[in-house]
């Protein structure tokens, strides 16, 4: 794997990117110290579609007394 200083990378960026896309990774260094590795992407990033509200519509049912379920038990536990 080749190493290029920042100045060289700037001058030859187009060529280096083309080579990286073909699988020839390279390293960019500054003052002799490696900073980054440039390599081809394996696969494009796929954005997952957002889950929509109501996707279970018609598949489950909510009881009419849902907001009162357990009232007596809660009152008993909290001494009400």
UniProtKB/TrEMBL annotation:
Pfam families: PhdYeFM_antitox
Gene3D superfamilies referenced in this protein's UniProt entry, alphabetically: YefM-like domain
InterPro entries named in the record: Antitoxin_Phd/YefM, YefM-like_sf
Role played: Antitoxin component of a type II toxin-antitoxin (TA) system.
Family affiliation: Belongs to the phD/YefM antitoxin family.
The protein's name: Antitoxin
Species classification: Bacteria, Pseudomonadati, Pseudomonadota, Betaproteobacteria, Burkholderiales
């Amino acid at each position: 794997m080749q190493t290029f200083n920042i100045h060289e990378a700037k001058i030859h960026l187009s060529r280096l990117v083309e080579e990286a896309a073909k699988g020839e990774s390279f390293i960019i260094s500054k003052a002799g110290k490696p900073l980054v590795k440039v390599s081809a992407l394996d696969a494009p990033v796929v954005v997952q579609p957002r889950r929509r509200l109501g996707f279970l519509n018609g598949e489950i049912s909510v009881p009419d007394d849902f907001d009162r379920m357990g009232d007596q038990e809660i009152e008993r536990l909290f001494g009400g």
